[in-house]
Recover the amino acids of this structure.
Protein backbone atom coordinates (compact mmCIF):
# COMPACT_ATOMS: atom_id res chain seq x y z
CA UNK A 1 0.00 0.00 0.00
CA UNK A 2 1.41 3.46 -0.93
CA UNK A 3 2.99 5.96 1.44
CA UNK A 4 4.65 9.13 0.12
CA UNK A 5 6.68 11.98 1.60
CA UNK A 6 5.18 15.31 0.51
CA UNK A 7 8.30 17.39 -0.02
CA UNK A 8 6.18 20.30 -1.22
CA UNK A 9 4.62 20.64 2.25
CA UNK A 10 5.96 22.35 5.37
CA UNK A 11 4.85 22.35 9.00
CA UNK A 12 4.19 25.52 11.01
CA UNK A 13 3.46 25.79 14.73
CA UNK A 14 1.03 28.19 16.38
CA UNK A 15 1.09 27.96 20.17
CA UNK A 16 0.38 30.03 23.26
CA UNK A 17 -2.68 30.89 25.38
CA UNK A 18 -4.31 32.93 22.58
CA UNK A 19 -3.56 30.50 19.74
CA UNK A 20 -7.13 29.18 19.32
CA UNK A 21 -8.97 32.56 19.15
CA UNK A 22 -6.09 34.00 17.09
CA UNK A 23 -6.58 31.41 14.34
CA UNK A 24 -10.37 31.46 14.63
CA UNK A 25 -10.43 35.19 13.89
CA UNK A 26 -8.27 34.77 10.78
CA UNK A 27 -9.03 31.49 9.00
CA UNK A 28 -12.00 30.45 6.86
CA UNK A 29 -12.86 27.47 9.08
CA UNK A 30 -13.35 27.10 12.81
CA UNK A 31 -10.37 26.19 14.95
CA UNK A 32 -10.40 22.41 15.46
CA UNK A 33 -10.83 20.76 18.84
CA UNK A 34 -7.91 18.75 20.29
CA UNK A 35 -7.17 15.73 18.10
CA UNK A 36 -9.14 17.12 15.14
CA UNK A 37 -7.92 18.40 11.78
CA UNK A 38 -9.69 20.91 9.54
CA UNK A 39 -9.13 22.32 6.09
CA UNK A 40 -8.90 26.13 6.05
CA UNK A 41 -7.22 29.12 4.43
CA UNK A 42 -5.90 32.55 5.24
CA UNK A 43 -7.24 35.12 2.78
CA UNK A 44 -6.32 38.64 1.81
CA UNK A 45 -8.83 41.36 2.73
CA UNK A 46 -9.95 41.12 -0.92
CA UNK A 47 -10.85 37.45 -0.42
CA UNK A 48 -7.94 35.88 -2.35
CA UNK A 49 -6.13 32.80 -0.96
CA UNK A 50 -2.80 33.55 0.74
CA UNK A 51 -2.38 29.87 1.66
CA UNK A 52 -4.68 26.91 2.21
CA UNK A 53 -3.75 24.44 4.92
CA UNK A 54 -4.74 21.59 7.18
CA UNK A 55 -4.94 22.75 10.80
CA UNK A 56 -4.27 20.06 13.40
CA UNK A 57 -4.95 20.67 17.12
CA UNK A 58 -2.41 19.02 19.44
CA UNK A 59 -1.51 19.19 23.12
CA UNK A 60 1.29 21.61 22.27
CA UNK A 61 -0.82 24.01 20.23
CA UNK A 62 -1.62 23.82 16.52
CA UNK A 63 0.31 22.32 13.63
CA UNK A 64 -0.34 23.78 10.19
CA UNK A 65 0.26 21.43 7.24
CA UNK A 66 0.97 24.12 4.61
CA UNK A 67 2.29 24.43 1.04
CA UNK A 68 6.01 25.12 1.22
CA UNK A 69 5.90 27.72 -1.55
CA UNK A 70 3.37 29.83 0.40
CA UNK A 71 4.75 29.21 3.91
CA UNK A 72 6.96 32.32 4.15
CA UNK A 73 4.18 34.68 3.08
CA UNK A 74 1.71 32.94 5.40
CA UNK A 75 3.95 33.29 8.47
CA UNK A 76 4.76 36.89 7.61
CA UNK A 77 1.07 37.77 7.51
CA UNK A 78 0.33 35.85 10.71
CA UNK A 79 3.06 37.83 12.43
CA UNK A 80 1.46 41.08 11.25
CA UNK A 81 -1.92 40.01 12.63
CA UNK A 82 -0.46 38.93 15.98
CA UNK A 83 -0.44 42.42 17.55
CA UNK A 84 -0.78 41.81 21.33
CA UNK A 85 -2.00 38.22 21.09
CA UNK A 86 0.00 35.79 23.20
CA UNK A 87 1.01 33.39 20.45
CA UNK A 88 4.21 31.83 19.13
CA UNK A 89 4.55 31.49 15.36
CA UNK A 90 7.22 29.60 13.45
CA UNK A 91 8.20 26.82 11.05
CA UNK A 92 9.14 23.36 12.32
CA UNK A 93 11.98 22.48 9.95
CA UNK A 94 12.58 19.21 11.77
CA UNK A 95 9.23 17.75 10.67
CA UNK A 96 8.13 16.30 7.33
CA UNK A 97 4.62 15.61 6.00
CA UNK A 98 3.71 12.19 4.63
CA UNK A 99 0.50 10.60 3.41
CA UNK A 100 -0.80 7.02 3.37
CA UNK A 101 -3.71 6.05 1.14
CA UNK A 102 -5.38 3.04 -0.41
CA UNK A 103 -5.53 1.20 2.92
CA UNK A 104 -1.94 1.91 3.98
CA UNK A 105 -1.36 2.78 7.64
CA UNK A 106 0.80 5.69 8.85
CA UNK A 107 4.03 4.82 10.58
CA UNK A 108 3.79 4.12 14.31
CA UNK A 109 4.82 6.80 16.81
CA UNK A 110 3.86 9.61 14.44
CA UNK A 111 1.25 12.35 14.69
CA UNK A 112 -1.45 11.16 12.26
CA UNK A 113 -4.68 12.78 11.04
CA UNK A 114 -7.29 12.07 8.39
CA UNK A 115 -7.26 14.41 5.42
CA UNK A 116 -10.36 16.53 6.23
CA UNK A 117 -11.06 17.39 2.59
CA UNK A 118 -12.00 13.93 1.35
CA UNK A 119 -11.73 10.50 3.05
CA UNK A 120 -10.30 8.89 -0.10
CA UNK A 121 -7.28 11.23 0.10
CA UNK A 122 -6.07 9.07 2.98
CA UNK A 123 -4.35 9.73 6.27
CA UNK A 124 -1.50 12.19 6.68
CA UNK A 125 1.18 12.14 9.35
CA UNK A 126 4.14 14.13 10.62
CA UNK A 127 7.51 12.50 11.18
CA UNK A 128 11.08 13.68 11.88
CA UNK A 129 12.57 15.03 8.67
CA UNK A 130 15.79 13.10 9.31
CA UNK A 131 13.91 9.79 9.23
CA UNK A 132 11.99 10.50 6.01
CA UNK A 133 14.88 9.58 3.69
CA UNK A 134 15.41 6.28 5.49
CA UNK A 135 11.90 4.95 4.86
CA UNK A 136 10.81 3.16 1.68
CA UNK A 137 8.23 5.42 0.08
CA UNK A 138 6.63 5.71 -3.35
CA UNK A 139 7.43 8.86 -5.38
CA UNK A 140 5.42 11.97 -4.55
CA UNK A 141 4.18 11.90 -8.15
CA UNK A 142 2.07 8.83 -7.29
CA UNK A 143 0.29 10.83 -4.59
CA UNK A 144 -0.46 13.60 -7.10
CA UNK A 145 -1.77 11.02 -9.58
CA UNK A 146 -4.12 9.76 -6.85
CA UNK A 147 -5.20 13.31 -6.03
CA UNK A 148 -5.83 14.22 -9.67
CA UNK A 149 -7.80 11.01 -10.07
CA UNK A 150 -10.11 12.21 -7.29
CA UNK A 151 -10.37 15.67 -8.85
CA UNK A 152 -8.91 17.50 -5.83
CA UNK A 153 -6.94 20.67 -6.65
CA UNK A 154 -3.55 21.66 -5.25
CA UNK A 155 -2.39 25.23 -4.71
CA UNK A 156 0.47 26.39 -6.90
CA UNK A 157 -0.48 23.89 -9.60
CA UNK A 158 -4.22 24.20 -10.12
CA UNK A 159 -4.71 27.69 -8.67
CA UNK A 160 -2.31 30.51 -7.85
CA UNK A 161 -1.84 31.84 -4.34
CA UNK A 162 -2.77 35.51 -4.11
CA UNK A 163 -4.91 35.24 -7.25
CA UNK A 164 -7.71 32.71 -6.57
CA UNK A 165 -10.89 32.97 -4.51
CA UNK A 166 -11.78 29.99 -2.25
CA UNK A 167 -14.78 29.08 -4.44
CA UNK A 168 -12.53 28.92 -7.49
CA UNK A 169 -10.32 26.41 -5.66
CA UNK A 170 -13.42 24.38 -4.65
CA UNK A 171 -12.76 25.03 -0.96
CA UNK A 172 -16.50 25.38 -0.34
CA UNK A 173 -16.94 21.84 -1.70
CA UNK A 174 -14.10 20.35 0.35
CA UNK A 175 -15.07 21.67 3.79
CA UNK A 176 -12.61 24.57 3.79
CA UNK A 177 -15.15 27.33 4.50
CA UNK A 178 -17.45 27.59 7.52
CA UNK A 179 -20.30 29.84 6.45
CA UNK A 180 -21.76 29.91 9.97
CA UNK A 181 -18.68 31.04 11.92
CA UNK A 182 -17.87 34.60 12.93
CA UNK A 183 -15.79 37.13 11.06
CA UNK A 184 -12.45 36.31 9.43
CA UNK A 185 -10.23 38.08 6.94
CA UNK A 186 -11.97 38.30 3.55
CA UNK A 187 -15.29 36.95 4.86
CA UNK A 188 -17.53 39.54 3.21
CA UNK A 189 -16.33 38.71 -0.29
CA UNK A 190 -16.58 34.94 0.28
CA UNK A 191 -20.09 35.22 1.78
CA UNK A 192 -21.24 37.43 -1.08
CA UNK A 193 -20.03 34.92 -3.67
CA UNK A 194 -21.82 32.13 -1.79
CA UNK A 195 -25.17 33.86 -1.37
CA UNK A 196 -25.27 35.47 -4.82
CA UNK A 197 -23.97 32.38 -6.60
CA UNK A 198 -21.36 34.40 -8.48
CA UNK A 199 -18.60 31.76 -8.50
CA UNK A 200 -18.33 31.36 -12.27
CA UNK A 201 -14.75 30.06 -12.32
CA UNK A 202 -14.11 26.57 -10.93
CA UNK A 203 -11.52 23.81 -10.99
CA UNK A 204 -12.94 20.69 -12.59
CA UNK A 205 -11.47 17.39 -13.83
CA UNK A 206 -11.27 16.70 -17.54
CA UNK A 207 -10.56 13.49 -19.44
CA UNK A 208 -8.34 13.40 -22.53
CA UNK A 209 -6.41 10.95 -24.66
CA UNK A 210 -2.73 10.69 -23.80
CA UNK A 211 -0.56 12.89 -21.60
CA UNK A 212 -1.97 16.25 -20.46
CA UNK A 213 -0.70 19.59 -21.78
CA UNK A 214 1.69 21.53 -19.55
CA UNK A 215 0.36 23.42 -16.55
CA UNK A 216 -0.86 26.85 -17.58
CA UNK A 217 -1.76 25.82 -21.13
CA UNK A 218 -4.80 27.84 -22.30
CA UNK A 219 -8.09 25.99 -22.79
CA UNK A 220 -10.09 27.19 -25.77
CA UNK A 221 -13.43 26.56 -27.46
CA UNK A 222 -14.51 28.12 -30.74
CA UNK A 223 -11.38 30.25 -30.76
CA UNK A 224 -12.14 31.76 -27.33
CA UNK A 225 -10.23 31.23 -24.09
CA UNK A 226 -12.28 29.59 -21.33
CA UNK A 227 -9.58 28.59 -18.82
CA UNK A 228 -6.22 26.89 -18.31
CA UNK A 229 -4.78 23.46 -17.55
CA UNK A 230 -3.54 22.60 -14.06
CA UNK A 231 -1.94 19.39 -12.80
CA UNK A 232 -2.49 16.16 -14.68
CA UNK A 233 -1.60 12.55 -15.34
CA UNK A 234 -1.94 10.41 -18.44
CA UNK A 235 -5.57 10.60 -19.57
CA UNK A 236 -6.74 13.11 -16.97
CA UNK A 237 -6.12 16.67 -15.78
CA UNK A 238 -7.57 19.39 -13.62
CA UNK A 239 -8.69 22.58 -15.32
CA UNK A 240 -9.55 26.06 -14.07
CA UNK A 241 -12.45 27.09 -16.30
CA UNK A 242 -15.20 29.67 -16.62
CA UNK A 243 -18.35 27.55 -16.31
CA UNK A 244 -20.50 30.07 -18.16
CA UNK A 245 -18.12 30.03 -21.12
CA UNK A 246 -17.97 26.24 -20.97
CA UNK A 247 -21.76 26.12 -21.18
CA UNK A 248 -21.78 28.53 -24.14
CA UNK A 249 -19.17 26.42 -25.92
CA UNK A 250 -21.16 23.23 -25.37
CA UNK A 251 -24.34 24.90 -26.58
CA UNK A 252 -22.53 26.09 -29.71
CA UNK A 253 -21.16 22.63 -30.45
CA UNK A 254 -17.53 23.68 -30.02
CA UNK A 255 -14.77 21.28 -29.03
CA UNK A 256 -13.08 22.04 -25.71
CA UNK A 257 -9.35 21.72 -26.27
CA UNK A 258 -5.85 22.56 -25.08
CA UNK A 259 -2.91 22.35 -27.49
CA UNK A 260 -5.05 20.27 -29.84
CA UNK A 261 -6.09 17.76 -27.17
CA UNK A 262 -9.88 17.39 -26.81
CA UNK A 263 -11.09 17.71 -23.21
CA UNK A 264 -14.19 16.08 -21.75
CA UNK A 265 -15.47 17.61 -18.48
CA UNK A 266 -16.16 15.21 -15.62
CA UNK A 267 -17.97 15.66 -12.30
CA UNK A 268 -16.61 13.90 -9.18
CA UNK A 269 -19.14 12.63 -6.65
CA UNK A 270 -18.11 15.22 -4.04
CA UNK A 271 -18.89 18.19 -6.31
CA UNK A 272 -22.26 19.85 -5.64
CA UNK A 273 -22.23 22.47 -8.41
CA UNK A 274 -23.29 21.90 -12.00
CA UNK A 275 -20.62 21.24 -14.62
CA UNK A 276 -21.84 21.71 -18.21
CA UNK A 277 -21.30 18.67 -20.38
CA UNK A 278 -21.48 16.09 -17.58
CA UNK A 279 -24.27 13.58 -17.05
CA UNK A 280 -24.95 14.91 -13.56
CA UNK A 281 -25.12 18.58 -14.55
CA UNK A 282 -28.90 18.78 -14.47
CA UNK A 283 -29.08 16.95 -11.14
CA UNK A 284 -26.47 19.25 -9.54
CA UNK A 285 -28.27 22.40 -10.64
CA UNK A 286 -31.66 21.19 -9.40
Amino acid sequence: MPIAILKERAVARIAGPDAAPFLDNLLTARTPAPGEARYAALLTPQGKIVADMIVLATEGGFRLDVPRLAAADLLKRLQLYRLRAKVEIGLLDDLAVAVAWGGASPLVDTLAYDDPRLPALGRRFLLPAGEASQIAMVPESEWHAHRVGLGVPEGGQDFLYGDAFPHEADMDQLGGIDFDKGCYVGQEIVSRMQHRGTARTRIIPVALCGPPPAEGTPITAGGKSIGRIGSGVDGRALALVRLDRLEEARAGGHVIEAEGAALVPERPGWVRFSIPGTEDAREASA
